[in-house]
Design brief:
Blueprint lengths: L2 H5 L12 H9 L6 E5 L20 E8 L5 E7 L8
Antiparallel strand pairs: 1-3, 2-3
């Protein structure tokens, strides 16, 4: 499906869970309108990264955040200032 057609679909949300490859592809084509990240208070030390180097760059703006009783932070981000350079 051409990217313009997907973006033009009626207001149906698409949720992607556990597919960093798909997310990277959607990011490269500017098809992600909102990121909802669940940040768990657990450090594993290794594993796959969602945002790889070099990967698609996304300047993000925090829209909302909540913390659950278990300490999970639910952070919602939208598009930010694209003129900000990556660190």
């Amino acid at each position: 499906m051409p990217e313009g057609r997907l973006k033009g679909e009626p207001d149906h949300d698409m949720v992607v869970s556990g597919s960093g490859v798909l997310i990277q592809s959607l990011m490269r084509h500017n098809l992600v309108d909102r990121y909802v990240l669940l940040i768990h208070p657990l450090v594993l030390g290794s594993g796959r990264r969602l945002f790889v180097d070099p990967g698609a760059f996304a300047a993000l703006r925090l829209i909302d955040s909540k913390t659950t009783a278990k300490g999970v932070v639910i952070a919602t981000y939208g598009p930010g200032d694209s003129s900000v350079a990556s660190a």
